[in-house]
Amino acid sequence: MLLRMSTLLLRTLREDPADAEVPSHRLLLRAGYVRRAAPGGYTWLPLGKLVLERVTEIVRSEMAAIGDQEVYFPALLPAEPYRTSGRWTEYGDDIFTLADRKGAEHLLAPTHEEMAALLVKDLFTSYRDFPVTLFQIQTKFRDEARPRAGLLRGREFLMKDAYSFDLDQAGLQRAYDRHRAAYQKIFTRLGLDFTVVHAMSGAMGGSASEEFLAATQVGEDTFVGCTACDYAANTEAVVTRAPDAGDPDAHPATEVHDTPETPTIASLVELANARALAGRTDWTAADTLKNVVLTVRRPGAEQAELLVIGLPGDREADLKRVEAAVHPATVAVFDDWPAHPELVRGYLGPQLLAKYDVRYLVDPRVVPGTTWLTGANEPGRHATNVVCGRDFTPDGTIEAAEVRPGDPCPACGDGELTMRRGIEVGHIFQLGRRFTDAFAVDVLGPQGKPVRPTMGCYGIGVSRAVAAVAEQHHDDRGLVWPAAVAPCDVHLIAAGKGPQLDAALDLGGRLATAGLRVLVDDRTHVSAGVKFADAELIGIPRAVVVGRRLAEGYVELRDRATGERTELPVDGLVDRLLDEVARARRDGV
């Protein structure tokens, strides 16, 4: 393949676009890989389409290698299967819905578990047909409230989704393990620095899931690792180790104190120590019980419900963790205090919540027998020796508190948690029988009785992976593509208008005939300096400059990643480049 920049649909930009928030967004626009078509929607220009195709082919080849079969579902889907599964309501405003001319409701597919289950039900009747795994690479749609960060958070995106069907949990586990290993190969081939982390299942449901996060400071996901073991998890999935429960009756009676003008934890602790409440002068924020009032709206519900969350006062509530815990309900901070005078703002305690039928969930650290300094449910007053299991009984526990660096590892207990940010590029789930139950997918088992298959689901954000690679492979001059995903193998730069141009085109033709992808900068209306700047911005791994030493039989080979420059004779250049590209593809660099 030979591309000529004189005719290529390409426009590079010298300045960052005003609305570009993250490096991948800025550079993919500036280097002419994509153009914004609408909020959350992008047109792939020729170079971008080549990168997308190379990523797609890597994904497809690894799926085929583990025996997955490729299908292609419609993107426009009827509402009824999603109503049957419950996800029409669960997705809420996150899906695009529409009605056809006859009034029948449809949606633009966010994912295809329902359709995969129905296809298997339609085609397979016997246990002998299993196991089976289907996959597709197809455009998906989500009605993002605020599309941002270019390809990282769009309304339309390319995704690989696979669906496994097995007759028992052991088969599901084997399918899950196969896909986990395949994903590791895929992201390694893409040149990504990634971590596999425990995750929440969200709208998919199921018993287990893991995310593949590409580490970058602009990632929307925060994940933890352990300094002493291999534990890793999205912060939404981090589990808090609960202390041992104690005897609720082993504490003094509750005391109520005047604590005027202490609506914050810091002001309360300061006063408690100054006045030696309950005979103590060593109060800390961790000794206080903070009660956060939220509203929770379940899918399809007309009204939101009140939810109060109790957590140690040295921790903030993490609404992302709360939403993950109560999914598919949505969460908002409560602000209608006049409508609920029983909730005393700044002085709320858990003692009376059951009386007012307010649901109360607590952090796992709040166990029976723990004693707290908390609100007395009266303006300007707090109470000491408020004991869990004696003075209040929670309705349950919830992982709602922020996770912090240095927290103890929930897996080994010996190490401390470290925190990083990342981009979710893959997610795998053990779905179980949620969807096969919904559609009564049964096959005849080996004993002549019906058997209901169990499902796994395995997704990769293909277009998002392009952005993730760009986030991890760039410098202050532009993109630095790994060889496996670069749009071309070699960028030829004619640093002159005479024999240099003819020689660059001739060399490009020979490289293309030999099987390489070649981009030739044959533009005659721009300077050599502009060509060099564009080459660094575009980021193809190797550039060959055909310049002044051509008359002596030499050209300059530039390595985009290392900046190394080497003068080489034109004779033998084709063979050398073929060897280098083959080695780079093999080694994944």
Please tell me about this protein's structure.
- Helix content is 25%, strand content 29%.
- It is built from 13 helices and 32 strands.
- The strands form eight sheets. Strands 4, 8, 9, 10, 11, 12, 13, 22 and 25 form a nine-stranded mixed sheet that branches.
- Strand 23 (443-444) and strand 24 form a beta hairpin.
- Helix 1 (23-30) packs across helix 10 (462-472), helix 2 runs antiparallel to helix 6 and helix 2 crosses helix 10.
- The chain is globular.
- The chain starts with a strand and ends with a helix.
- The model has no long low-confidence stretch (mean pLDDT 94).
Strand-helix topology:
Blueprint: E1 2-4, H1 23-30, E2 34-38, E3 41-44, H2 46-65, E4 69-70, E5 76-78, H3 79-85, H4 87-91, E6 97-99, E7 105-108, H5 113-123, E8 132-141, E9 156-166, H6 169-189, E10 194-198, E11 208-215, E12 221-226, E13 232-234, E14 255-258, H7 265-274, E15 289-297, E16 305-312, H8 319-326, E17 330-333, E18 359-362, E19 371-378, E20 381-387, E21 396-397, E22 417-432, H9 434-438, E23 443-444, E24 450-451, E25 454-461, H10 462-472, E26 474-475, E27 478-479, E28 490-494, H11 499-513, E29 518-521, H12 528-538, E30 542-546, E31 554-559, E32 565-569, H13 573-587
Parallel strand pairs: 1-29, 4-8, 16-18, 18-21, 28-29, 28-30
Antiparallel strand pairs: 2-3, 5-7, 6-7, 8-9, 9-25, 10-11, 11-22, 12-13, 12-22, 14-20, 15-16, 15-17, 19-20, 22-25, 23-24, 26-27, 30-31, 31-32
